[in-house]
Structure formats: C-alpha cells, structure tokens
C-alpha cells in the first residue's frame, strides 16, 4: 500500500471512530442533531459542563474525542480559577453563615483525591481519563505518595484550622494506603486534621456514597456539627445525613458513585 493511501485510511478510520463515539457530534458536518454548527471544543465544553451539573453520570471514560480538551482543561489556569472560586465561596460561607460553637464539635469534611491532593499527574499517563480505571496502577501511584497539593484547598484547610474547626478527611482510598496517604499529605503541607477515615474491607462492599453517608451518620452520632464538605465527586456530598453546605470542585477526569 502506498504511504498516502495508508495515511488516508488512517484518517478515515479515525473519523469513523470519532463519529461512532459521539452520537450527537458529527465531525464531518460539524453540526449537532439540531443542525447547529459547532466546533469540537463546543462539544467537549458542553460535555464537561454537564458532568459538573451532574446531568452526565456514571461515565467510565472521558469520550475519546474530548481527551485532548479535558487534558488541557485540568492543566489550565481556568481549572485553577474554577477551583479557587469554589474555595473562596467556602470561605465566604465560613465568614458569614457559620456561628461556630467552638466546643470541639464544629467539623468540616474534606475528600482527599482531587480535593486536597491532585491525581492529575497520574491521569496524564492514562490519557486524561480516556482509559478505564486500573485500580492496581492507581494504587501503585498513590502508594508512592507523590501527589501534589491543590494550593487553594491547602489555603482553605489552614483557614479552617485557624478558626478551630475539626477537620475530618473522608476518602474512598483503602486502608492499606493509610501511611502513604499520611506521608503524602504531610509532605505537601497538610497537618493537624482530627481524623482520617479510609475505606475498610466492609466499606468496600457498599458504594462510595453509602460509605460516606454512614461516616457522616457516625460523626453526627458523636456530636459533631458538619458545617460543610468540600469534594470533587457528587458521591461525597449527596445522601443523608447532609452537611449544612457542600462545595463541589471540578473534576471531569472520572466518576465515582
Ligand atoms: C493495570 O496496572 C497494572 C500495574 O501497573 C498492570 O500490571 C496491568 O497490566 C494493568 N491492567 C490492565 C488491564 O491494563
């Protein structure tokens, strides 16, 4: 086969696979079903927005045609600004709407991954969510304890400490990662939390949302007032009992239910 021909065939198969992967996006016509002329960027921005709005759920991988866009987003200034805004709103809430009793029972819950620590360096090697989750390789990466801090979250964490809130970390990471997780957190500047709750074998039998609501039930039973949660997944903030307020950080890389 001539070189040109094979290049042409390669392009054609790419076009076909892209067209199949995105039912509402036709790369040949650059039009939606309704005939609106859009770019791939429009399509992927809309995918990302609808993930954040929780209209798109349970996705296993980032759509192939949007991997480039999502990779750019999570490494962009926009991602930092979006996260910073969420954190600023949490600080506004703390300053204006929380009458803390300062009796050691005012609590705040944080997720860990993509809330306090960034997994973007790992997902960069997994085509920014374009590949299905491989728990073995993700846990190998986590056990190295090299995840960087999300700087705005560190700021909020320290603000909470200064205000005397009890900081409770609730993560779907498994127990065997406890010491690696503590080392990683301390290395990048997080210390002084009240408790670090990870998933034990029994917790693994239920979904992450159930596990996290059970943890809240227990905390409330112990007399804690949960003023807020910061998390990057809806499974961290939805379900009963609720926190008084919740703050969602952007995460278009993966979905945890
Ligand atoms: C998952 O990751 C492990 C460890 O890096 C690797 O050995 C294994 O082949 C991977 N599995 C798949 C299905 O890619």
From TrEMBL:
Gene3D superfamilies, per the entry: HAD superfamily/HAD-like
- Molecular function per GO: acid phosphatase activity; nutrient reservoir activity
Q: Which InterPro entries match?
A: Acid_phosphat_B-like, Acid_phosphatase_pln, APS1/VSP, HAD-like_sf, HAD_sf
Q: Which keywords, in A-to-Z order, does the entry hold? A: Glycoprotein, Signal, Storage protein
Q: Does the keyword Signal apply?
A: yes
Signal peptide range equals: 1-21
Query: Carries keyword Repressor?
Result: no
This molecule's function is given as:
May function as somatic storage protein during early seedling development.
Similarity remark = Belongs to the APS1/VSP family.
Q: Identify the PANTHER family for this entry.
A: ACID PHOSPHATASE, ACID PHOSPHATASE-LIKE PROTEIN
Listed name of the protein: Acid phosphatase
Originating organism: Prunus persica
What does the record give as the organism's lineage?
Answer: Eukaryota, Viridiplantae, Streptophyta, Embryophyta, Tracheophyta
């Amino acid at each position: 086969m001539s070189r040109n021909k094979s290049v042409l065939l390669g392009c054609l198969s790419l076009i076909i696979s892209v067209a199949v992967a995105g039912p509402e996006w036709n790369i040949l016509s650059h039009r939606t079903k309704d005939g609106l002329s859009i770019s791939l960027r429009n399509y992927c921005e809309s995918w990302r927005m609808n993930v954040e709005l929780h209209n798109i759920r349970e996705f296993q991988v980032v759509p192939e045609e949007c991997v480039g866009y999502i990779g750019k987003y999570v490494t962009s200034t926009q991602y930092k600004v979006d996260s910073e805004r969420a954190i600023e709103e949490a600080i506004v809430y703390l300053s204006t709407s929380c009458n803390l009793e300062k009796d050691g029972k005012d609590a705040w819950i944080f997720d860990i991954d993509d809330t306090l620590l960034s997994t973007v360096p790992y997902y960069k090697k997994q085509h920014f969510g374009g590949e299905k989750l491989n728990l073995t390789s993700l846990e190998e990466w986590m056990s190295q304890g090299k995840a960087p801090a999300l700087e705005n979250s560190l700021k909020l964490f320290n603000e909470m400490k200064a205000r005397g809130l009890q900081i409770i970390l609730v993560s779907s990471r498994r127990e065997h990662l406890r010491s690696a997780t503590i080392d990683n957190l301390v290395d990048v500047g997080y210390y002084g939390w009240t408790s670090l709750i990870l998933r034990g074998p029994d917790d693994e039998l239920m979904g992450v949302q159930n596990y996290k609501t059970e943890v809240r039930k227990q905390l409330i039973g112990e007399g804690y007032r949960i003023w807020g949660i910061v998390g990057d997944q809806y499974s961290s903030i939805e379900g009963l009992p609720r926190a008084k307020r919740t703050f969602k950080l952007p995460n278009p890389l993966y979905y945890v239910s």
